[in-house]
Amino acid sequence: MWVEFKIADFVLVWVIVALDAVAVVYGGRTSGYVRGLNYSADMPLDSDVFRVPPGYNAPQQVHITQGDYVGKGVIISWITADEPGSNTVLYWAEHSTTKSQAEGIMTRYTYINYTSGYIHHCTIVDLEYDTKYYYEVGIGNTTRQFWFFTPPAIGPDVPYTFGLIGDLGQTFDSNKTLTHYESDPTKGQTVLYVGDLSYADDYPLHDNVRWDTWGRFIERNAAYQPWIWTAGNHEIDTLPKYGESKPFKPYSHRFHVPHMASGSTAPFWYSIKRASAHIIVMASYSAFGKYTLQYKWLISELPKVNRTETPWLIVLMHSPMYNSYEAHYMEGETMRVMYERYLVKYKVDAVFAGHVHAYERSERVSNIAYNIVDGLCTPISDKSAPVYITIGDGGNLEGLAKVMTEPQPDYSAYREASFGHGILDIKNRTHARFGWHRNEDGFAVEADSMWLQNRYWGSVDEMPVASIWKGPGHKGYRRNMSSY
Ligand SMILES: *[C@@H]1O[C@H](CO)[C@@H](O)[C@H](O)[C@H]1NC(C)=O
Ligand SMILES: *[C@@H]1O[C@H](CO)[C@@H](O)[C@H](O)[C@H]1NC(C)=O
Ligand SMILES: *[C@@H]1O[C@H](CO)[C@@H](O)[C@H](O)[C@H]1NC(C)=O
Ligand SMILES: *[C@@H]1O[C@H](CO)[C@@H](O)[C@H](O)[C@H]1NC(C)=O
Ligand SMILES: *[C@@H]1O[C@H](CO)[C@@H](O)[C@H](O)[C@H]1NC(C)=O
Ligand SMILES: *[C@@H]1O[C@H](CO)[C@@H](O)[C@H](O)[C@H]1NC(C)=O
Ligand SMILES: *[C@@H]1O[C@H](CO)[C@@H](O)[C@H](O)[C@H]1NC(C)=O
């Protein structure tokens, strides 16, 4: 029996190799661009980007995120170091003569021998759409003023531009990524952040001082436009040997999200609507099996997405479901097995993930036909499937994921181990352009790009990208189990 199988395998493998040799290769590009250094040093503690703002008890680490379900709310967060100070935020629309005020909350935490500053969070709701607001924090001591724009009212043809950043950390490369994002001529209006923020847990005792430096580093952008948070593995941050066994402790004290507005029971999975997009944040590191809270929430959220209102359905998670790098290979597989069928059923346009310190864009493929006996276990072209984009290339101290699985699988349309950022530029209900920018190029250069056709409104074909269906004879053709 065993011998017979071996012979059958052997023959099949050779048939496939022969077919591969003559097949025309369409998509599936591994970039020839090879970045020299794969190691990034963290910026030293006395770097300009980590400077504490002057003045007694001055608010620092100011950042904002969406504060409600529909984009009329903002959560403003900041930290004061010397004393609790005031929880009040003053805010006013540009040209307005009256100022409003909102009252926030204050929290703090200890981590082994570290004690955090006074962490303030204030949610402001019922703002006008499409309006510039100024806000002031630190009332009573040193005040600091910032501003942001609310998004346009939700609607199917509202253009809106999202930046995509992941696994940023705080190295010289991280600073380059943020600078390139800020200078990108396709101005990003909101950052979709796909997890792994400060990398403080790479330090002895998870030195939380590196959470503070990270907060000061991103303030120059995150105080002026919302960053939509996804939790990554570096946010788990437990050190049981030292009594720190509560997962996500520093993260959940420092970064609040509007999860309750979408009926979620935890800040790790939630959704928001913004302009023409419905964005679902999933939690790679919270229970997601059947009957879990995350599962129940997601299964009830997906049918609520109204594509007439928000044509673009975007999912964020940390660990990618499709990844052809050796780093974290197959780690997203349990999540894929569990949820891919729903992403296809509800025609998700794009799934963005981080985790792998490199860039990769997939074809529209799915791998949901497989059941334990039918052998259909290879991803196939699927026009209802999302494009999967790995954008964990923010530039943290762990360096690039340079080793790739070979040969490049057919589901992988483009991959490159360089640091960079992405921009999703939604034009209307049918068209959005995604561009990936590597840090070695000028701000305006897109090293990889594609026009996304909306899965609900757009044409099913996205011809400019790559061949969608490759047919028998090409290595992308679905193989039988017996060929493995
Ligand atoms: C860079 O990558 C190579 C292999 O890809 C590895 O041998 C080397 O140790 C890495 N260097 C650093 C500093 O991480
Ligand atoms: C915590 O302990 C570590 C190791 O002993 C030490 O290096 C660090 O300075 C301490 N931090 C504080 C805030 O005391
Ligand atoms: C700082 O502000 C708080 C709240 O407004 C106030 O109670 C406190 O007295 C102020 N501290 C100083 C030193 O001005
Ligand atoms: C970080 O980037 C900013 C903007 O380009 C620059 O002003 C600053 O000096 C950089 N800091 C470091 C430590 O590289
Ligand atoms: C979807 O949104 C459109 C536009 O706002 C609205 O007319 C329609 O009733 C909504 N559909 C559902 C099922 O709520
Ligand atoms: C949607 O945007 C695309 C790309 O800018 C454009 O070609 C197309 O004409 C637009 N559609 C409508 C209906 O305006
Ligand atoms: C698997 O391969 C066998 C033998 O080549 C073939 O008869 C069968 O149809 C294949 N199954 C599928 C699902 O392609």
Summarize the entry for a quick read:
The protein has 484 residues and is an alpha+beta fold.
Q: Note the main sheet.
A: 8 strands, mixed
Total of DSSP H or I helical runs spanning 4+ residues: 6
Shape: globular
Radius of gyration (CA) equals 23 Å
Extract low-pLDDT stretches: 1-26, 464-484
Q: Find the count of extended strands (DSSP E, 2+ residues).
A: 26
Mean pLDDT: 90
Search tags:
6 helices, 26 strands, eight-stranded mixed sheet, six-stranded mixed sheet, binds 2-acetamido-2-deoxy-beta-D-glucopyranose, disordered N terminus, disordered C terminus, alpha+beta, 484 residues, single chain
Question: What is the secondary structure topology, with strand pairs?
Answer:
Layout: H1 2-22, E1 29-30, E2 60-66, E3 74-80, E4 88-93, E5 100-103, E6 105-107, E7 110-111, E8 114-115, E9 118-124, E10 132-137, E11 144-149, E12 160-165, H2 172-183, E13 190-193, H3 209-222, E14 227-228, H4 249-254, E15 270-274, E16 277-281, H5 293-301, E17 312-316, H6 333-345, E18 350-353, E19 359-362, E20 365-366, E21 380-381, E22 387-391, E23 412-416, E24 420-426, E25 431-438, E26 448-453
The chain binds 2-acetamido-2-deoxy-beta-D-glucopyranose (NAG) (7 copies).
